[in-house]
Amino acid sequence: MSEYGDHSGYDTGAQRIDVLEDIFSENDRKAAANRSALDEHGVVAINLMSSPGAGKTEFVRRVLEKTAGDVRYGIIEGDIETSLDADRLEGFGAQISLLNTGHGFGGECHLDAPMVTHALEGLDLHTLDIVLIENVGNLVCPAEFEVGEHAKAMVFSITEGEDKPLKYPVMFRSVGAIFVNKMDLAPYLDFDMELFKKNVATVNPDCKLFYISAKTGEGMDDAIEWLRSADALGASVVVGEEEKKEDRS
């Protein structure tokens, strides 16, 4: 097996490193501002990532369906083009802010903090409890860009294969929970769950796994509980949520 090094087409010297550091530094500054704005309103943000077709939108739709009238959600819906996914989430009482990234060369493959800053302007944060950020479907770039979230999670479909944690370690290492989706298909697939769990543990031993079918609703109650729990939200945010509830009383 031969290794041919960098195929990016860019110079790999110090100048490129400096540019990348500047990009991430500016993004992180914006992410911190986003988080401060969310904290100011006692709102929790969760960055939900996956590959294309893993079932993120159906997962979010099922969450909204099961918690309608109980939790006040805002949704930032990231897609390269169209409002198709955002349209599927209408009718459940959630505020929805659509982000299309297709203005770039072929469309940006992830959301970044400045994009989320713009999307937050379309939400009335004072009236929300949780913002779910449905990132663009991609197992690489979304994990590398902080957007101001308090937690990261991913939807993984068992149709993707057991090897993905090892092939995309940055993504699997970045999340606090993995919602293992399409369990209704398990009887029809040659998917080795024990090997998958072993591979996840190799890159992220503290990650929590939830076995779900967003289509049938199997396992969704536990997944929703994680979204609302201190594990997902962090102690400082839970305190902020309690203060927010006191303000409403």
Automatic annotation (TrEMBL):
It holds the Pfam family cobW. SUPFAM superfamilies: P-loop containing nucleoside triphosphate hydrolases. InterPro entries: CobW/HypB/UreG_nucleotide-bd, Hyd_mat_HypB, P-loop_NTPase. GO terms for biological process: protein maturation. The keyword Transmembrane helix does not apply. Residues 46-208 form the CobW/HypB/UreG nucleotide-binding domain. One of its GO terms (molecular function) is GTP binding. CDD domains: HypB (cd05390). Keywords: GTP-binding, Hydrolase, Metal-binding, Nickel, Nucleotide-binding, Zinc. Belongs to the SIMIBI class G3E GTPase family. HypB/HupM subfamily. PANTHER family: HYDROGENASE MATURATION FACTOR HYPB (PTHR30134:SF2), HYDROGENASE PROTEIN ASSEMBLY PROTEIN, NICKEL CHAPERONE (PTHR30134). This is Hydrogenase accessory protein HypB. It comes from Corynebacterium pyruviciproducens ATCC BAA-1742. The lineage of its organism: Bacteria, Bacillati, Actinomycetota, Actinomycetes, Mycobacteriales.
